Amino acid sequence: MELSPLAAELYHAVRALPLICPHGHVNPRLLADPAYAWGTPVDVLIIPDHYVFRMLYSQGIPLPEIGIPARDGTPPERDHRLIWRRVAENWYLFRGTPTGYWIRRELADVFGITEKLDARSADRIYDQISAALADPRFSPRRLFERFNIEVLATTDAAADSLREHQQIRESGWGGRVVPTFRPDKVVLVDRAGWRDEIAALSSVTGISITNYRRYIQALESRRAFFKQMGAVATDHDAATAYTEVLSEGQASTLFDRALRGTLSPAEAQRFTGHMLVEMARMSVEDGLVMQLHVGSVRNHNGPLFERFGRDVGADIPAQAEFTHNLRPLLNRFGNQPDLHIILFTLDESTYSRELAPLAGHYPALRLGPPWWFHDSPNGMRRYFDQVMETAGLYNTVGFNDDTRAFPSIPARHDLWRRASADWVAGLLQRGLIDAEDAAAMMHDLAYGLAKRGYKL
Amino acid sequence: MELSPLAAELYHAVRALPLICPHGHVNPRLLADPAYAWGTPVDVLIIPDHYVFRMLYSQGIPLPEIGIPARDGTPPERDHRLIWRRVAENWYLFRGTPTGYWIRRELADVFGITEKLDARSADRIYDQISAALADPRFSPRRLFERFNIEVLATTDAAADSLREHQQIRESGWGGRVVPTFRPDKVVLVDRAGWRDEIAALSSVTGISITNYRRYIQALESRRAFFKQMGAVATDHDAATAYTEVLSEGQASTLFDRALRGTLSPAEAQRFTGHMLVEMARMSVEDGLVMQLHVGSVRNHNGPLFERFGRDVGADIPAQAEFTHNLRPLLNRFGNQPDLHIILFTLDESTYSRELAPLAGHYPALRLGPPWWFHDSPNGMRRYFDQVMETAGLYNTVGFNDDTRAFPSIPARHDLWRRASADWVAGLLQRGLIDAEDAAAMMHDLAYGLAKRGYKL
Amino acid sequence: MELSPLAAELYHAVRALPLICPHGHVNPRLLADPAYAWGTPVDVLIIPDHYVFRMLYSQGIPLPEIGIPARDGTPPERDHRLIWRRVAENWYLFRGTPTGYWIRRELADVFGITEKLDARSADRIYDQISAALADPRFSPRRLFERFNIEVLATTDAAADSLREHQQIRESGWGGRVVPTFRPDKVVLVDRAGWRDEIAALSSVTGISITNYRRYIQALESRRAFFKQMGAVATDHDAATAYTEVLSEGQASTLFDRALRGTLSPAEAQRFTGHMLVEMARMSVEDGLVMQLHVGSVRNHNGPLFERFGRDVGADIPAQAEFTHNLRPLLNRFGNQPDLHIILFTLDESTYSRELAPLAGHYPALRLGPPWWFHDSPNGMRRYFDQVMETAGLYNTVGFNDDTRAFPSIPARHDLWRRASADWVAGLLQRGLIDAEDAAAMMHDLAYGLAKRGYKL
Q1: For the structural domain made of A38-138, what CATH number should be given?
Q2: Alpha helices per DSSP H over B119-191
Q3: Is C239 in the A-facing interface, judged by CB distances under 8 Å?
Q4: Is the ipTM of this complex over 0.95?
Q5: Nearest CA of chain A to the CA of C304: how many Å?
Q6: Sequence ranges of chain A with CATH classification 3.20.20.140
Q7: Considering chain A, what is the average pLDDT of its residues?
Q8: CATH 3.20.20.140 fits C5-36+139-453, yes or no
């Protein structure tokens, strides 16, 4: 993204700072396996990127035609060069979108490809990417180093063995890769398969989870293990920010009903709302930063979910509410200055109305960066515009790349640094801050806020 | 609207493209009657334009004083020159509003009047407009040609005879004017007069609507007739986007209750929600594009409605919700790539939160242009800003003028083309797209998207 | 805030106009007592400013350490120089915030201090402010004159004696200071202490409030007294904009229950909703302008409220709804052109969706300026952007400083005048208005709208 001269100057002072990646979805196997093979350009750039295939799907291109496997055994297209051509022919769909921009930057900055992707260039670009992916200098660990990543957090289920993380630590390779404790599968009692997940949690902890107290013990035990493996944070998904403080007796009763499969939807909401408060309690005790992402209706497209399963681009935001919903949790733990709760929203109307005022008051609260659909040039601009005056920069935590697409990480951070420079330059130009403030803010946006916010 | 040099260049490349007018409220009589007489400047510019008189009313000017007739027999002011003077004296109220801008452009571009409207110029301008309106070169058909309208869709009730459309087709005149099927009066069961409308529908179709099945047959029959008369689309108004799939038995039961006048408000909502799904089903079958406009509380001002009836400017938006409400419909028909459902909202908080993610996923969904109050320089800018990154340009459908004020059509399209150029120039300047993309996007915004989106 | 040359020119034409301050929270004692002593810089700039201390608190600084007294007897820090140093060391937290900007302007324009506030300059600046505060030229009355305040409205409880206002009037000093009738304490029946407030109201009016009719008489009597003391407006806080028209019998029944302490929360909402309608009725009769501020959840932070009481920065906005909620009131009184109801919101999503359309239709409605958290450079820009096209400038009322920090008044008005110039310059530059319009709009934004909107 091109910048004004003033913004460009601010950006250049921070463009080469190391990357802090405190929240993302990179598969740790990439970095655990020194001989990791990338596969084709489609394996790297298309199939794992639901931003890419949701747009193609929205224009009527069936998912199997771009390599997405169906549950029902429909074979996906296996000719990846053909898929790549199909994508290239339709690349105009990404005009003006962040995906179009990221992939262009990624091709240029990681793979050295500056030609525009379209039907004519598709084969040449496919060959160039393929050649690079086969080159040992493009192995994940070499890219990690070249990208200047200081720390990379993955996201891991509560019952995960963290075997790859163990392998990375034992390999002698110097890259810092840390897990993040994400207990959704064992906390969201109303999801299909919850009891299987509880069984897995029992198994991995050696604690037979037959009641609420043991359930809490098992969770605490896993948090301790994650922390020992380098984790600095937990991550929680919820349909809403609803929280409620239950007594231990109430929580036990609901937990028993959940185990027996007799919990009503209303009770499930109360229980998960209570578990958010419990997670905050554990964070006060063990110091892990607590991340809370709310407001996405998962698997909105029922027929597509039936055929293709989760994460095929049909998670759709809905209205969010924080002021009333978070009050029980905040009244219990929000005044703890050492607790860090980081909030994410998909409902931008909550930026100025709820989140900025809450973060600008409660010591425990900080705001995460613009999330998901809003992780874009305009989305970042709206975030700076609507959040910062009330929350204050120092109640935010810099940037998350939040991606499973490892080679796109530098492009994402670079966009954030440019968007940050654009915002700070605007303040400087209007005389709202001076040059000293601007320089300090840029360093914090690019580096310091993420490091401190996540206690890294 | 003045543009930067870069935007002006983009605008000039499309400014003279034909106008696609796929959604509007022009009275087809204007074009059916070769000898149509416009009346006075007040008849043309003030009385049919609720944007104009709502603002004057909001500042305490009684509606009869500007020519709006009351139901109770209060005679409206009949001296149109006097009304024009009154409007001109108060024209400062429109400073910075889109109405002020449109009417200024309309006076300049259609009538050649560049003098500013105020108390001093009122009479001169009145005389100039009056003279033009009497000139055969200003007849609706001549203006249609001069405006370079490629196609104009009107909006017509389900039971409408489409007589004027028939007259236009039989007249030998070459202008393409097509009807749009708007069945609200026979679908919104809770509106006063619904049973009379059903009687009218029975009468016009020759199908005695005594049960649900015949009701559906009658609707299908009218859709076929509209399609035969050139219609490409249907249009649906609803208080909310609530949808629900009822079984035929359930729908029949509710329909019977509606005929007997014993439907509860909750049942009425379920029935109308079901009918939206039925309309989507019919669109899958007959190929008509389905437009859905939601979120306006009609006739909010009870006392004014009592005195003046519908459409006196008291339709006020309320919160809208699409993610949950549209899910039943979308799970039934949203994955049909040949179905086009075009959504409109008055609640801009749904742009980035709900509509763009939905349209960026479901093959059947497209977003309509900024609607009604948002059909303005800033409204368009916010739409581009909040919709495009996530939905993608190609899940939108260009522009609708949505007006009953025929002579204002070019000014409205021109504003859209300028606002589009402003947005595209911003992308180009920031290096987010290149010049080739920019040119293609401009053509699509001005022409191609509307044509393809409405299957024209 | 620095402006473009065009905006600067527009700003300079109005920068020296007198200040109209129709809504604020200055303590009238400042102006009643000719020998009023300011205290320390911390007494003037920190302790009364919840914008300042909420931000410091959000970063973990305990309130007593910056001088805020607790209810539980915890002694606050008494060394104000030490507090000032603490604030100065943390002043970087206000980078890019309106508080940072206001205080910088206030130091420069009122106290002549242009040095940047930080740890190094803290003592020097403390001494400079202290010296100024002790100087008779800095007494509140002298500042009032120097600030060129034409009129200043305070906010006063219904049972307030208005003694200070009486003293100001009797003192022979020429400054115009008027009270505002704020009956929340006697209207919000569900607040703790309501019956005590009713007793106080009985006492001050001499009307023994034993039933609803006497309650209404007492309120009318106080309104008459306030009006006689110069009041031009009333001010109402409510959690929501809910209104309902009750019969006198229904209202009496609920009032009796409230007196007996047996009112349910739902009944309390109905009663307060009815009282808003009653207040509009009284405004029609006595001509007082009615201000309505809704959408703040007061004392959100329970533990902090327990320790420190009201107004410690824990009032958090929540979703607001006006379209449905205000309909009963507007259907009763919204068509009265002499009634002025001024609405304020903390939920910006209501600007374009509800408030602008409502104000652009109902003669009685006008929109207040951006309120509280939105009283900032970006907040003002969003307000102009989202409100003006639909509401029209002449359905708004200019600016309110809404502050208890008397010396900050000029900085706040100055920011509004600059932000206004920035908006008007944008319209002028885009050719949406001409220079004549621009000049008139600037004068109205800076002066005329507030004066006419508040009938001053």
Answers
A1: 1.10.2020.10
A2: 122-133, 140-146, 163-170, 184-187
A3: no
A4: yes
A5: 8
A6: 5-36+143-453
A7: 97
A8: yes
